[in-house]
Write a structure and sequence with these properties.
CATH topology of the largest domain: UDP-N-acetylmuramoyl-L-alanine:D-glutamate ligase
Shape: globular
Catalytic activity: 7,8-dihydropteroate + L-glutamate + ATP = 7,8-dihydrofolate + ADP + phosphate + H(+); (6S)-5,6,7,8-tetrahydrofolyl-(gamma-L-Glu)(n) + L-glutamate + ATP = (6S)-5,6,7,8-tetrahydrofolyl-(gamma-L-Glu)(n+1) + ADP + phosphate + H(+)
CATH class of the largest domain: Alpha Beta
Pfam family, one: Mur_ligase_C
Structural class: alpha/beta
CATH architecture of the largest domain: 3-Layer(aba) Sandwich
CATH superfamily of the largest domain: Mur-like, catalytic domain
Subunit structure: Monomer.
Oligomer: single chain
Distance between the termini: 24 Å
Largest sheet: 8 strands, mixed
Number of domains: 2
Keywords: ATP-binding, Folate biosynthesis, Ligase, Magnesium, Metal-binding, Nucleotide-binding
Cofactor: Mg(2+)
Low-confidence stretches: 1-6, 459-485
Number of strands: 17
Length: 485
């Protein structure tokens, strides 16, 4: 049932959000770009007015996109950035010149495209098809906002997969494919080869193809073959061959790296994020930026350093509080959580680390917990705010007990109680009361990270729960914070 908005002059962000959320989520997968192509036809093809960096991969898409955007903006280009999922507010997903749309701008963008979306909905219904989905609508809004700004380059993160993702109506000047691993198998395929094939769908004839470091040795050949098949004009840049992370060293607040791209070597570049994986994401972002920035040869190292040293990504190994050190991370699959554990071991000297975890019931929960078990003294299991998809706490508790043992598992039915339980455990173990070596890590889902971030920043967010009006309208406000997870 659609939420009907009657008073367009007094619209709030919540009104628009509910209207968009009444549509099918991204996981209601329909392998077609017809609706996106039709709405762009109606809008006069705004996507043709800017260059594009298109980013896919199982993990690291958001970080890579943000770093590429920062480099392009530092060089004076006007930028658009489209990422998902959001952590606190849907307005995070669309940014122009490094600033996310204000509530008023988001509402105005919706009003400008709404009539065209209605036309596509009617056309699709006449053919027996569905309305435009939540993600298709947001993608349309992003493209329109970027053309309206106007931007010079849009850095666009794929929602899921690649070939049939709503963003794939764009022709990327740079097609960035980060690590490809097993995730979203029910939509993308049961093997890493099938998943790689889906992600290779973003490669177009005009693209420079940037292949990030891959956890599976068979993936690069699949991506290279896809580039040959479409005749990717810019060729292929592979992490470890045409480009490489020459060196990296941990530093306060992140790391310092030396990167080699096809255009030169960038020495002693600060990256304000933790983990080896972020060094490789920075490399991919730099190669992509070189593709669209109108400079012959190597970019200015000082400009690149300033850009990469300024990028922070909410919910990605984010230190949200001190005393005790509290870290939140949205990682929810084997590759992402392995990167989290490695970064914690490399950058923090914890002697007592308590985990808070909530995951979706369709994820590999036992695998994720098994990865984190060696570095956690205890784990507190709980539920996040996406009630329709979260693993019930009693089920999560059973799996956690099988991994950690009963004496290392605590249960709290709500996120606030879980965080407080973890802090109490850490404080009890900190006999000197100084906090050094004691910490809390909250992980398992971007919804979990978002919930924790809101709570720890002591800000209320009405999107965390359904209102009576939402329920009356038949709207589930839980799903959309994580449509890409």
């Amino acid at each position: 049932m659609s939420y009907e908005v009657l008073d367009t002059e007094n619209l709030t962000l919540a009104d628009v959000y509910r209207e968009i959320m009444s549509r099918a989520p991204e996981h209601d997968f329909d392998p077609s770009l017809d609706r996106m192509q039709k709405v762009l036809d109606y809008l006069g093809h705004p996507e043709q007015s800017f260059r594009v960096i298109h980013v896919t991969g199982t993990n690291g898409k958001g970080s890579t996109a943000r770093m590429a955007e920062a480099i392009c903006r530092a060089y004076g280009l006007r930028t658009g950035l489209y990422t998902s999922p959001h952590v606190e507010s849907v307005t995070e997903r669309i940014a122009v010149d490094g600033q996310r749309l204000s509530d008023a701008q988001f509402i105005d963008t919706w009003l400008q495209v709404k009539d065209f979306i209605d036309l596509v909905d009617k056309d699709s219904a006449a053919e027996g098809g569905p309305k435009m989905s939540f993600f298709e609508v947001l993608t349309t809004m992003a493209i329109w906002a970027f053309a309206d700004a106007p931007v010079d380059v849009a850095i666009v993160e794929v929602g899921m997969g690649g070939r049939w993702d709503a963003t794939n109506v764009l022709d990327g000047d740079a097609a960035v494919i980060g690590p490809v691993d097993m995730d979203h198998m029910q939509w993308l395929g049961d093997t890493v080869e099938e998943i790689a094939g889906e992600k290779s769908g973003i490669i177009k004839s005009r693209s420079t193809v940037i292949i990030g470091r891959q956890p599976h040795e068979q993936v690069p050949a699949i991506l290279e073959e896809a580039a040959r098949e479409v005749g990717a004009a810019g060729g292929v840049v592979r992490d470890g061959i045409e480009a490489e992370v020459v060196s990296r060293a941990a530093a306060v607040g992140g790391q310092v790296v030396t990167l080699r791209t096809p255009n030169g070597v960038y020495e002693q570049i600060p990256v304000s994020m933790f983990g080896e994986h972020q060094a490789h994401n920075a490399l991919a972002a730099l190669c992509a930026a070189e593709t669209v920035i109108p400079v012959a040869g190597q970019l200015d190292t000082d400009v690149v350093a300033e850009a990469l040293g300024s990028v922070k990504v909410p919910g990605r190994i984010e230190v949200i509080r001190r005393s005790p050190t509290t870290i939140i991370d949205g990682g929810h699959n084997e590759n992402a959580v392995t990167a989290l554990r490695t970064a914690l071991e490399e950058n923090f000297d914890f002697t007592d680390l308590v985990g808070v975890v909530s995951m979706m019931k369709d994820k590999e929960v036992e695998t994720v917990l098994g990865i984190m078990e060696p570095i956690l003294s205890k784990v507190v299991v709980t539920e996040n705010s996406w009630k329709s998809r979260v693993m019930p706490v009693e089920e999560l508790e059973k799996i956690a007990v099988s991994v950690f043992g009963e004496d290392r598992v605590l249960r709290a039915d709500t996120m606030p109680d879980a965080i407080q339980t973890a802090v109490d455990e850490v404080d009890a173990a900190d006999e000197m009361g100084i906090g050094f070596g004691h910490g809390v890590v909250i992980f398992g889902s971007f919804v979990t990270a978002g919930d924790a971030r809101i709570l720890l920043k002591e800000r209320h967010n009405a999107e965390l729960k359904n209102t009576k009006e939402d329920r009356a309208a038949g709207v589930d406000t839980d799903f959309s914070a994580e449509d890409a997870e």
